Amino acid sequence: MIALVLALGSSLAYGCADFLGGLGARRAHVLRTVVIAAPASLVVELAVWPFLGASFTAGSVAWGAASGAASAAAFLLLYRTLAIGPMNVLSPVTALVSAVLPVAVGLVQGERLGAAGLAGLPLALAAVVLVSAGPGARSSRPSATALLLAFGAGAAIALQLVFLHEAPAHSGVAPLIVGRAVASALTLAAALALHRRLGPERPAYALSAAAGALDSLANLLFLLAARGGDLAVVAVIVALYPAATVLLARRVLAERLQRSQLAGLGVAAVAVCLLAVA
């Protein structure tokens, strides 16, 4: 049950981070947003180090570095995907891929679920698609390039979660610190390489930093949840993060919720209840 609560908290934090990061990316190039968000997330991990500890073994450093590289790729691919659009088709693709791959890894590694869990997993995956889909999803047709980018973004998000899960359980927050440092370095290098294309606009510092801090919190909660529960269950709960994003969009931007999204929220609630007793 504790792992489920932590996974829900991680999902909420990811959803809020995506919302704030999206707002920041509307005001400036995505690289300007990520260059601020990534170091902000590193600051959060360094702040919790004294309380949760960190063991920088070869395993924790290697898996942490791998998760950081996947995180940097996920940031860039995700925002590029959403920029190409249509968002209402590509968001569900990304979210679904990000959920399915960790679930598959968990099951291959021998995780076993009861009847409630077996019923809850497909419901949760369906909820991921429903809450991510916006208006006009049926009529909009993405290009092959956009679909490949969406799959790539989902795969990068999934790999980040899997790599964090594979880090030694006794390593504390070391994988997160290494991962955030690697992600910061990679995004900074990308920004320096492409600085002439970024334009003169100033980034939204507060929004970007808040997005990075929330993303860091989400990673921390996921790591704690995965260490205390099954990766298959934790990953699919975390993948419900679009629910928080669409609810914030409804509250802050006055965006209307579609019937499919409302249905998805209901399906998500049922799925969480089933997974809670799995």
UniProtKB/TrEMBL annotation:
Entry's Gene Ontology cellular component terms: membrane
Positions of transmembrane segments: 51-77, 89-108, 114-133, 145-164, 176-194, 206-225, 231-249
Keyword Lyase: no
Recorded superkingdom: Bacteria
Stored InterPro entries: EamA_dom, EmrE-like
Domain (EamA) ranges: 146-275
Keyword Nucleus set for record: no
Family per record: Belongs to the EamA transporter family.
This protein's name: EamA family transporter
Organism: Glycomyces terrestris
